[in-house]
Write a structure and sequence with these properties.
Strand order of the largest sheet: 2-3-4-1-5
Strand content: under 5%
Shape: globular
CATH topology of the domain at 93-245: Rossmann fold
CATH architecture of the domain at 93-245: 3-Layer(aba) Sandwich
Number of helices: 38
Number of strands: 8
Largest sheet: 5 strands, parallel
Radius of gyration: 30 Å
Amino acid sequence: MVRQDSAGAFSRELARRLAQRRLSWRKLADLVGYTPSWLSKVKNGAPPSLELARRCDEVLDAAGQLVALAEVEGDAVPPAQLPAVTACFTGREHALRRLDDAVERPAEPGAPAVLVIDGPPGAGKTALALRWAHQVTDRFPDGQLYVDLRGYTATGLPLAAEEALEEFLRALGTPARSIPATVGQRSALYRSLLATQRVLVVLDNAAHPGQVEPLLPGSAECAVVVTSRSHLSGLGVRAGARHITIGSMPTEESVALLHGILGDEPLREEPDAVWALADRCAHLPLALRIAAERVAASPDHSVADVVAQLAAEGLDLLTLDDTTAVCRVFSWSYRTLTRAAARLFRLSSLLPGPHFGTAVAAVLAEVPVSEARRLIDILVDAHLLESLGHGRYRLHDLLRSYADERSRAEDGPADRAGAIRRLVEWYLGSAVAATVQIAPFRTRPPDLAPTGTDVAAMTFTDPAAALRWCETENHNFAPISRLALEHGMADAAWKLAMALFDYFLLRKPWSAWLATHDTALRAAQDTGARHAQSWLRINLAVAHAKRRDLDRGHRLYREALDISTQLDDQHGRGWALYGLAGLLCERGQHQHAREHAEQALTLFKQLDEQEGQAVTLAVLGEIHRQTGQCDAALAATQQALRLCEKQSNHYGRGRKLAKIAKIYLARGDRERALQYLALSLEVRQETGDRWGQADTHLLRGDILRDLGHTEAAHTAWTAALQLYQELDDPRATDATGRLNTSTHEKCSTRDPNRENN
């Protein structure tokens, strides 16, 4: 989060780098060509223009970090990501005091307090961390970050530091396009954003120090709490971490926890039985909660009856490292479930992602959503499922292991395979429905929807609903694609990635985009689906090109072109050629770009693919404009405009009108350019294309400035800035840069003696 105050992340990082190089702010003003008075505003928290950020970045050799900080919006909401506290939390007073003490007196002066809570499964590490975190939120007014690193999940892979950093950077307000590619770059930007901020970071369920170290802030104002089954001793050496090991609770605290759930009567009437029950649970919080629920759910049985039942079953006192024995405690609650609730609990172990919603539960259990909601409530009440809020749920690792054990014993291979098939087909069908809403104009490869399925996927009434679903399920897409591949559904694995392309293109969740497509490409290669391999390479090329890895993008486009040519897939060949044309144009290789665009256009005409023709003609127009061939540029873009009009594609029509305006501007005909921009603005307002409106205002301002209409230009740029800010679009920096330059030019015409007042 970057705040519009005197402690802006950009100004802090700039000041730090100046101090490193022993440069003054006045010297920086000389080096970057800005007045000292303007840099003084930036020093005190004013948002910098993108141009100023670039100049500072170059002068101070910041490798793009200052530019990225400048692109973060200034009104981001402080993150508040902590999950809810476990109900009836009891005890751990000594551990809570140690956590308080560690924050008040960090081990390393000038470094963040790093606290590691380790212990066996079921000891309540996460519950303790979250309880303390919620108690101290007032100490961290700039926000709280939380991530489950999934270090000991029964299925799926631990969360990579790269993915966790992507989540944190987005939560801190970094636009997707400004998130760096490598772990080191992301970690550096993350530390800069948190410099002097007071933010609490909770890293849950870590597997090893390598997962944690890139996520550590550099600011002494921050604190980090890590939970793990391992001691993570490396953090103590490298980060000065303090360790708090927890295991079984003291007897008094165990009894207090049971008392909080059972109430006064059992403790008053059966004190010895309550103490015996605590002993039977080895004083582990997870086992204690489930045992208490077992008693509460059996009003006709006393606590002594439950203890006797456990003794009769031969359940020995639990040891802290005996996961299997702890899981036997779960059977107390499991056996009280209805058949339907028990089946849902078992099948939930098949879910590979970190959390799930009611609709997924309905698919697994083969029941209506309303019934699934009722079954989930039963499982949550029995502490066999954890509610994360907002209709999302997850299984504790131990409960997942137990549920998987029961599923293998009771459901059989056919039932499990059927549940996995339903799950994968639901995600695929829902993704296809979402992409149709997000980009209805898109020409797609052969039918992606699952065939012959009886699974009712999600439906969406508008693009906003489709995007909300994609955002909520984003963390599950890669695990689901791996699940499909592992269980013989390779076609579904590559279809899912392709169906999600339009969401990935719009929101740019890089980790999910690349992970799903990498899995999809393996699936397509395993099954010999070469046409899918071509399309997937095109999608991956788009991702890498947008991440500024033009070499990899070019290689993938070439590979896709080779495959589609061998398969005589003219459609795929056309899109590969179009992608190469755009990439080569961006590189300034106009001759090669023109050749590829012309080949793509020929193919799209043969296929009667009007969308492909329109976008390729627009690329040709851009090539012609950049090479000074304005007549050819105008002809190509006008033809693209006519195709949009023929398709009633008003969105595309607004874009083409703006491109024509640029061509007239290149000709030096500013008045005609303004006329076409006025037409473009009108169309974009009618269609609700606010991004397009902002672009139009920006270009109008440029032209008006060149015509000497300074105030009108300022008004147009202000309108563009307002729209970009409302849309959380990083191009707001472009408008800000123009406004700042205009202000700077005005200041430079004043009496220099007044400037220093």
